[in-house]
Amino acid sequence: MKKTFQMEDLDCASCAAKMEDAIKKIDGVTSATVNFMTQKLTLEADDSRFGEIAKEAAKICRKVEPDCTVRF
Amino acid sequence: MLNQMTRRQKKVFWRIIVAAVLFAAGELVPLAGFWKLIFYLPAYVVIGGDVLKKAARNILRGQVFDENFLMSIATLGAFATAFYDQVSGAASMVGYGEAVAVMLFYQVGELFQSYAVGKSRASISSLMDIRPDYANMRKDGELVQVSPEEVRVGDLIVVKPGEKIPLDGTVISGSSMVDTAALTGESVPRELVQGANAISGCINLSGLLEIEVSKPFGESTVAKILDLVENASGKKARTENFITRFARYYTPAVVIAALLLAVVPPLFLGGWANWIHRALIFLVVSCPCALVISVPLSFFGGIGGASKRGILVKGSNYLEALSKTEIVVFDKTGTLTKGTFEVTKVVPAQGITDEQLLRIAALAESYSDHPISLSLRRAWGGTVADAQVSDAQEIAGHGVHAQVDGKPVLAGNARLMQAENIHFTQLQGAGTVVYVAQQGQFIGAVLISDTVKPEAKTAIASLRKAGIRKTVMLTGDAAATGEAVAAELGLDEVHAQLLPGDKVAEVEDLLSQKTEQGQLAFVGDGINDAPVLSRADIGIAMGGLGSDAAIEAADIVLMDDDLAALPLAIRIAQKTLNIVRQNIVFALAIKLGVLVLSALGAASMWAAVFADVGVSVLAILNASRALNTKGL
Prior knowledge:
By secondary structure, chain A is an alpha+beta fold.
């Protein structure tokens, strides 16, 4: 399953790259991109655990840039 | 301005106000020594608390060289040196106020930066405001508003005047003018009639249209274009990768330099506070943000600006390559020429008028649907009545024989005239010549050829002005035809009589002729030339609107059939790359300048804050110029 999430307050370009790298490393993620310009997170992951993985990804984003939120 | 900010930006905004008031109080109220801290300390906590917290947390996570950490060290260090100065009784070189001021201006700069990025993002996404919000779907005889994703192939949708066509499909009933400007940049409306292909993203201007959907939303033109443009920033340009690599080394290098500056000189010269202060300035300048943000922003702006003008660029790397184009190779038919045949020359024999000759030729050929007969009929303009023509016979490889107005007429190539022993005057020209004879007498010749697009010549000239070294045309046509077109347009080279496979070989040959940095672009219609498009450094397809094959195969798609978009695309690319270069040079020059000055003790922390956030803001503002393609 592939889904795109809108993000808010993603202010740092290198943070976007850090998030992307970290999200890719989550177990079950096939591909992930964090687009700094459009503030979008595109996540492709296992169907069965998608919700869980998406939450994990959002947590990573907050960890890298505390003000940044992912809208579900 | 305030109501356009996000929640977090507003929070920072109010903190800045509070800290600024406290700071002003600290500067104005005449308090001496430690008493000054009554105002400065709360001001510092309000404005810098956040930064300190983030820095502490990031250190725990092992991310040392981040901006927050550097700012914390720099400002805490400023406090410390001020304190040391005071305790040791040295003339206070720097006050506590400096730490507050630095943090304050850092936050102001950050806020500006965040706001400017937000602004650029908003203006780029408004450029791409082609996403339809809803579709009026016919369901059980009623019209319901649904999201475009819910509509399936075969469903009927209704588009009212003023609405966007939400999905691709075929017009079942109704006719209207549609505005394609959002997709093609072309402001002349197109007409849609029953049976025509309706393309999503166009705006319905006048009539009511009922459309049978032919593609799901995800595969519709509008979704594809949005997808392409949004993901374009994922394909990074070489400059962007360079900046990322540079940033990775720049920060640690400056931090190490700062450490050395703080420790080594005072070992020999003494004056620890002074040298530590200089080192702190280094830390403030060590963030590469100006580059990391402004470079991708410029590329994204350039791509957004181009898409506004009907030019789809599939990646920053292609925009960068396009700016370095040296050789442009064109396919002839459909790219430089219209790809339709038209009568371009009418040469009647003595005693015959143009009109008579065209009429007889058109009538004689009226039984055929060959492109040549069609163009004859178009040029003549009359309608064929049955009584005028009879006994039409095709003579394979030669032409036709028919009775026109009761008289025998021959129309065909030179071989036909020779075979019938008719004395005729040869007509020279690029294209197909139809010789006509009536009752065994030659009455004239008509030249039919593919016509050059009206804007082609100026487009080639502007390419040259934009710095293209060489323009080449590839064609499967005869050499004479090709050379005539090339001469008319002012192209440098023609390679004629090529089979489709030969074109790849020709492009490979041309690729070896360019300089190391130069790029080769191939321009075609994207339908028959996919292998060549992919072999060239940059594959450009024309007339992409409604042609999935072209959008798929090319790196850059000119949505309209207008060749003028090609030099425009190159100029947009060059402007974007100029902005990128300006930002890199500007940011590095200021940062290096401040580093050198502060090492010598000639720069204040104020200059350092300017070199950090001030430069970022200016670079971002400069980057947003890439969006503007007016006047290019």
